[in-house]
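User: Let's play a game. I give you a shape written as tokens, and you guess the letters that built it. Ready? Here's round one.
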């Protein structure tokens, strides 16, 4: 923002007067879904690694944070998406949409969160303090409805841990 009025984290693409095309691809194999903000839809909170692209009318708050948005070792930093327009989200594996009923609470591992809308949420510790402080594990978000949570069926961190166990040891 300091030099050109642009966000440090988001690129802007504009077609020339005669039109044009631009393509986007997710960094990991999985689903891509389109959601909408505006038109009566509430703002959308997305895990930064799941955000792919948004239409011109969407405002992206990369400054949104606080203690709740640092959800453990998975490095979940949330983006607040508001305004009016389409948003494309990607995942590692399939994306499952979970409706959380009024007054119901849904708990999920942070590595599976893609996005959420209209839910109250908080982060709590499960397990011992040592495991939480040393590894980031042991923190889980609780989502209380009514609202929607989008999940990815696979965890990139779990895949990395599995691959690390398959690599030959350095001798």
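Assistant: Ready! My guess for every position:
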């Amino acid at each position: 923002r300091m030099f050109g009025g642009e966000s440090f984290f988001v690129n802007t693409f504009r077609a020339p007067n005669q039109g044009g095309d631009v393509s986007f691809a997710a960094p990991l194999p999985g689903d891509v879904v389109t959601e909408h903000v505006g038109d009566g839809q509430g703002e959308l909170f997305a895990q930064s690694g799941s955000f792919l692209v948004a239409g011109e009318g969407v405002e992206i708050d990369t400054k949104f944070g606080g203690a709740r948005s640092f959800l453990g070792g998975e490095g979940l930093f949330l983006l607040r998406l508001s305004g009016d327009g389409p948003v494309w989200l990607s995942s590692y594996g399939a994306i499952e949409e979970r409706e959380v009923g009024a007054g119901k609470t849904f708990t999920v591992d942070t590595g599976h969160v893609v996005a959420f809308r209209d839910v109250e949420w908080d982060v709590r510790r499960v397990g011992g303090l040592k495991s939480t402080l040393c590894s980031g594990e042991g923190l889980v978000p609780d989502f209380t409805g009514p609202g929607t949570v989008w999940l990815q069926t696979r965890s990139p961190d779990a895949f990395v841990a599995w691959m690390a166990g398959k690599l030959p040891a350095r001798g």
